[in-house]
Write a structure and sequence with these properties.
Length: about 180
Amino acid sequence: MSLERLIEQCKKNDVKAQSELYKLYASKLFSVSLKYSRNTAEAEDNLQDAFVTIFKKIEQYKSKGSLEGWMKRITINTALQRYRTVGVFDIVNEQQIADDSIEIDEDSISIDFLLQIIQELPDRYRMVFNLYALDGYSHKEIAEMLSITTGTSKSNLARARQILKEKLKTYKASLNSQTL
């Protein structure tokens, strides 16, 4: 079945088509959900909630842009919705922000380890880090999505980078001590 036909059937609440659409995109959207979640169980919950929203709102998809991109935005927004109402974002003074870059040695650090330390970040830092560094949103867009100031977005990104840098430094030190 073509994607266009699949979408049309989903708009008619065809359970078979919905199941097929889920099978086509669940793994890609799960990885998106995982980036914004504390753990696998939370990512699974967010993914399920995202698909409920996708099927409810599929009528709104007008075939402009990719379906995957549209579903990815819904998945991100579903994960972020958990944090908007809980007040996890700090308001800070923009002058306190230092731009801290992170250097990663791809040979000694696995993607799984990087994902793990990103998931360990406090919610407010993880959300901003993922939106900015992994999904390419601007601080202005992040501020609008999370109902925070651009200064808070920048500050949370800087703090996330600082925490990740410290964890990578500790990890590298433990690797070096094992090889000695």
